[in-house]
């Protein structure tokens, strides 16, 4: 008895020690992706959850940790992948989680191991990257704290995590079919905005409250506003990330200012705002000091920007303790800026600069400049988005495998164009709206420095140009500048900010404007660069960058089971 | 000029000759399975079509032909397979089109070649056999005519093909999630019945017509009754097949009798009926003589049997030429027999016998008897159907590959039970409703003769026992008998019809009754035997028969790309 107790205690100690050791290095997760019923806005819908939950579980790690997600696909008949948005995947390009690009979709009943390192503290998230599964609810937060012994360059007393999204009542299957149909069927505006998977639809809570007419009776906890419990006179970090399908958002807190300190996992020079625009694919940290009348609670709200909004704002309550969280704020929710007030949006974007001393400045010159014209087009009567007149059609065999193993004809050959015709008028609909579909890719010299100019233009309708948040996989990039109208290769280049441009992984182009970014192609792999609006990507709005693929290590077979790599593997023709 | 004309003519002749030669032997089809919008009952829905059409194209061939279907999966994120219902697949078990059983689901963008021989003239159909894709509209007709020089044992002047189905407005994704959820959510009764993909919903055509109040105004051609144009005093063959998800149907034609001549691709001794019950998975040919008043048109209608109907009948018009097809029949559509009048149904089933001289009688004794108790159960609180207390859970690796290559642990070991406890009361709900899930399979000695007794029982609710049409893949079987209550292994066996039992591939068990079948295990492969009701199969209502797997030829790699066979192939461990 004594011996067995001793054994038990020893084994407990060993297991505790092992856990402690592993906790600081590798974090294990076992996930099952499957359909669940949920009511994010109190309207029940079948959506994609992880381990029965929506949104998926939050991953919390420290910089330098290794994340280990054993992902089982428990969908009935569909494949699945998960992309770790903002994580560079240096040395593990096969773990980027992009179907047709970095890996084969995981078949039903199969398990895929995502194993990757999180290098840098910051606010990240993850989401589906196959078909439009992100819009079906397949997303969650990934928060990386500073490594032990390291410190964030700002102080706070507590933090909250707000994952923002938008919500459609139509299934993603119906959405995908509509977008792929002739005649084209647009998905329209979302029915609801969500904060941490909860939003207020149809019960008109926001409207009622603005009019002071009291609480919505039918509100269940599924869609009740999230409560942020705070103490007076403290400073809180709000981590905000947007994984919306379509909506550009604006977030504000009644009576409170916010100090922006982080963008996409990079520190920025702190600046104060009353409200903040967040585009799909972006993340921010803001510091909020609870210095207002502590006997009151306050609304935090998010509303739609950049498209004529048909969706009510979503709300959260900043609850000053010891007030009851159900005590309604005395003041109305913040008013969302006019949707078309782009100057307001630009003034925010222009203020985002690298934090002094946080990173070294970018290379002062680039080896190559790629100008990407964003246009709405038709291909054989199907409505598409195109880049330099090519609408991206992903190939059946993921690029990473077919390029690494030099398979022929796995995707369209030829380099896509580096620029667009000089006589193209970005202010008017395309004269000839026909474009073509292709899966061709930009091959980029390893370790070279590349400038990309994203040039916005008129869409198919007259006087319409839309916001597009572009997200780059595998890299952060410096945002060198923004401008209105057509990019001028002399004047605008001369005005690039080469001193303290912010590092981002997502950046917006404003209507009829351009945005210039620079990155170093130092991450062997194949990387998507695309509009983060889910239906736009589905309609072909993206390009593929391949760099240093010859330096990619041994790709796990599980990432190669489909298409030509699958066939080659089976014929034993791959190393 | 003259030479080139000559060349052109010669090449035309050669091509015509080649076509003529190939037309009688191998028939090539190139199909793309994809989502389309369609309005089968004038309510638009996204459904699965083939080459943009719903139902899929009709395959027409002659006995002895080889069918060659190059099937491309153009669904966005889902796998797909197609089962050729009633085709034996002798020598080609990998072409049976059953996911998890005969092949891996075809991934999006991939193409699979179905190549198989149609041996026997008859009325067949094809349909999806992965998840509940059949219920999403993935089906069509497969008609095999007598070989050149052969004759059907009956004469007719023309024929019509009627593929019957039922239709739900809820998507199959929502249906699958509900059926797989705790608490269980039943799909309910179908919204509409369809004849050749058309039905009348909500516009209450049938009701109006019965009351003589005229045509439904809003009817568009998508859901208008199918018109069968006939001449007076001729005999027509109606080919009728049912691929319903749930509904058992009854078909009748106003004022006309029908002579049943074929069932499931086998000739039956002709007999006359006023109406005919058709269960999901069955097919019939009936002869109808147009001997009624030729100045009138007549209704053909199908209605629900065996479940309290909440679905209106679907209609077709038998249009005696030269009447206008839009001339409404003078008499009301036939009245569907009372849904619970099982004696009416039994009297039909009992009359179906093999046509004299058409086939040889069955082996007069069996080598083995397997008794399969059908019960509704719960497994960990999930509602399931079980066979001898096992609810079928299909494995990630298809049986055919894992058995052929003797892979370990690809499915649950152990033989499932051959019988059920003698004290089980089939008339009452299970005392202990808990059952287990398993993927274990019945291994059957090659070329042995097997009797299977399907024993129906009470469902979970008191006084409820449902109809289940059981379908066997890879074989026709003889229906040796039916009975009420518990099967008696002495008395009932003694009463088996061993003289002229009909050959079928699908047979029904009536509430609280039993059905006995016999088959010869002469088809090397792995074959599903299951309730053809789509939600019941999804809930585990089936068993697996494996026979002579060692005689299976080289399985095409394309059928093995998933699960353990996929891994073994990639590690080059398979022959």
TrEMBL record, chains A, B:
A Gene Ontology BP annotation from the UniProt entry? response to hydrogen peroxide
The record lists the organism as Ensete ventricosum
The residue ranges of the Plastocyanin-like domain are 33-146, 160-322, 427-548
Q: Which NCBIfam families match?
A: ascorbase
Q: What subunit structure does UniProt give? A: Dimer.
GO cellular component entries: extracellular region; plasmodesma
Asked if the Swiss-Prot or TrEMBL record annotates the protein with the keyword tRNA-binding, the reply is no
Q: What's the EC number here?
A: 1.10.3.3
Q: What is this protein called?
A: L-ascorbate oxidase
InterPro entries given in the database record: Cu-oxidase-like_N (IPR011707), Cu-oxidase_2nd (IPR001117), Cu-oxidase_C (IPR011706), Cu-oxidase_fam (IPR045087), Cu_oxidase_CS (IPR033138), Cu_oxidase_Cu_BS (IPR002355), Cupredoxin (IPR008972), CuRO_1_AAO (IPR034259)
UniProt-annotated location(s): Secreted
Q: Which cofactor does it need?
A: Cu cation
Q: Which domain of life is it from?
A: Eukaryota
Record-stated family: Belongs to the multicopper oxidase family.
Please name the Gene3D superfamilies in this protein's record: Cupredoxins - blue copper proteins (2.60.40.420)
Identify the keywords attached in UniProt to this record, alphabetized: Copper, Disulfide bond, Glycoprotein, Metal-binding, Oxidoreductase, Repeat, Secreted, Signal
Q: What does the record give under GO molecular function?
A: copper ion binding; L-ascorbate oxidase activity
The free-text function statement in the UniProt record for this protein reads: May be involved in a redox system involving ascorbic acid.
Catalysed reaction, written as an equation: 4 L-ascorbate + O2 = 4 monodehydro-L-ascorbate radical + 2 H2O
